[in-house]
Amino acid sequence: MIAVSEHNAPSDKHCPHNAAINCASCRLSAICLPLALAQDEIVQLDEIVQRGRPLQKGQHLYRENDHFSSVFAVRSGAVKAYSMSDSGEEQVTGFYLPGEILGMDGIGHNRYASSAVAMEVSAICEIPFANIEDLSGKLPNMQKHFFKLLSQEIVEDQRHITLVSKHTAEERLASLIVSISARNARRNLSPLNIRLPMSRTDIGNFLGLTIETVSRVFSRFAKQGLIEIDKKELVVLDIDALKHIASLGH
Amino acid sequence: MIAVSEHNAPSDKHCPHNAAINCASCRLSAICLPLALAQDEIVQLDEIVQRGRPLQKGQHLYRENDHFSSVFAVRSGAVKAYSMSDSGEEQVTGFYLPGEILGMDGIGHNRYASSAVAMEVSAICEIPFANIEDLSGKLPNMQKHFFKLLSQEIVEDQRHITLVSKHTAEERLASLIVSISARNARRNLSPLNIRLPMSRTDIGNFLGLTIETVSRVFSRFAKQGLIEIDKKELVVLDIDALKHIASLGH
DNA sequence: TAGTTTAGTTGACGTAGATCAATTAGCTAC
DNA sequence: GTAGCTAATTGATCTACGTCAACTAAACTA
Predict the structure, then answer these.
(1) Which residue(s) pair with B144 in the sheet?
(2) Any strand C atom closer than 7 Å to A229 CB
(3) At A75, which CATH number?
């Protein structure tokens, strides 16, 4: 099936280190950090990127309150970020797919404001932030891009606030499906055949719903012929209807 | 009363332009942009800051989708940011008090993602972002500070997501009161005698509640002896109890 | 192969907060 | 002074989603 996340692809499974020897040759370069840089600048970025062993499912990339030192790019797999409130309940703050950057919440106070854990086997690029700051002083493109990245995360978080505070369960779930579909498309994966890397619990937590409500809404969408869903395998049958539901007012 | 917002102070009302001839002498310098800069760097910041006429209540600073060019610092008064969803409903995304920076949501796509409107007569400093980028290239302190500012806004937005998706009406409102109280304290205003610059409608919208629920919770807090409230005049009687409620789990 | 654990589904019922509606109190206009 | 507004409060009722509980089906293990 075309939509299976690429961490299952042989290349990643058998030689994860070779999957991207450098940023210039990485197949995510068009959507990841190199996006904003010129050829010779990518070389400089490349020198500071660290490519580690792949993370196993359940392994943490960093934990809330850890000393902040790096941001991370997902190369394959999927990562979940979550924070713990004073009262001990978990809040999933984001899902990160290949080409996406996480860890930027640590810049403000030199400590990560959230924990990040692999939801499946994942290859990760680590970029020490001190090096990013140096490079940003030298390369205006780099500085501009990071300002943009941070600002875009603000905008997304504000959209998410609207989603969870003003929208129904159906609108929230439709919105998540549409978002994942669009992010799949950006990576040249099928936007209609999706393997959800996260559990119902994570989805519910992220959307401010219970697992039961998530399950019921999935069932309702299936009954209406908008999707087919079997555990984590999701087939989108009517993306336009979902987009319409996602953009509905309350 | 000590807690009245300083836009009512004669100095601001009668000579708003003299209130801060430059950043170095501005009484908000300890909490605003100059915070992170050395003396000689503040001079450079000062050269790019534009201090305009005060905004009247209801006047806009910028509107959603306007071309992005500047970020703004509130010098006196209070500003509300809000965005309009596809479906036309308003979402209040933040309240900005003196010393606070807004407009950074525009960096990512060169258009403001929200509108900003004065909730009362407000003096505003405008800082063209192109100049900030230039200056950030030259002054590492400046670059670092802006990265931090952006990151902190991300962290705050994520806290707000938790607030509206996992907390009760009482916890949300207690949280807002505690936040405004703390921000008053930062400006050396009374943390217990507060003049709320925003309407019940704005509070409800910001917290994901209806105006009726906001009103009822205020009344309940008053009945419990935690606050006294008369329209926009709020006296905090038991800040510890409010902090406790604000940090409660769901 | 049965026994336990974990993720997900579905149903019955309860509740926090929304909705609808009536009332009050300032404010402006004339 | 009173008519018309708008912001806020308070009460009565409704409902979307949460809670509690029973059940199914993988997946793990011993």
Answers:
(1) none
(2) yes
(3) 2.60.120.10
Closest in B144, B158, B248 to A157, CB measured: B158
Strand-strand pairing, B90-96 and A233-236: unpaired
- Of B14, B28, B35, B3, nearest to B191 (Cα)? B3
Cα A111 to Cα A83: distance, rounded to the nearest angstrom: 12
Most distant CA pair in chain A: distance in Å? 56
Per the model's pLDDT, the better-predicted residue between A240 and A7 turns out to be A240
Q: What is the pTM of this model?
A: 0.91
Inspect the interface and report whether the beta carbons of A143 and B137 lie closer than 8 Å.
Answer: yes
Identify whether the C-beta of residue B113 lies closer than 8 Å to the C-beta of residue A158.
Answer: yes
- Structural domain includes residue A227: yes
Determine the distance in angstroms separating the CA of B93 from the nearest CA of chain A, rounded to an integer. 7
The pLDDT value recorded for residue B19 is 57
* Percent of chain B predicted with pLDDT > 70: 91
Mean local confidence (pLDDT), B24-43 = 92
Q: Which of A58, A103, A49, A105 is nearest to A77 (CA)?
A: A58
Region B48-66: what's the mean pLDDT?
92
Residues from chain B that touch A162, judged by Cβ atoms under 8 A, are 83, 85, 91
Is A72 among the domain residues? Answer: yes
Give the end of a domain, one of B153, B179, B213: B153
- Kindly report the nearest CA distance between residue B98 and chain A, in angstroms: 20
Nucleotide nearest to B208 (CA to C1'): C17
Predicted confidence (pLDDT) at residue B100 exceeds the cutoff of 60: yes
pLDDT in tens, A150-200: 999 999 999 999 999 999 999 999 999 999 999 999 999 999 999 999 999
| φ, ψ (nearest 5 deg) of residue A142 | -65, -45
Predicted pLDDT of residue A53: 83
User: Which are the contacts of B164, defined by CB distance < 8 A and separation ≥ 6?
Assistant: A161, A164, A165, A208, B172, B207, B208
What secondary structure letter does DSSP report for A144?
H
Does B12 reside within a domain? Answer: no
Q: In this structure, is the CB of residue A215 within 7 Å of any atom belonging to strand C?
A: yes
Q: Judge: B137–A133 Cβ closer than 8 Å, yes or no.
A: no
Which of A109, A151, A161 is facing B93, going by the closest CB pair? A161
Domain span at residue A100 reads: 33-153
Over the stretch B101-142, which tens digit does the pLDDT of each residue have?
999 999 999 999 999 999 999 999 999 999 999 999 999 999
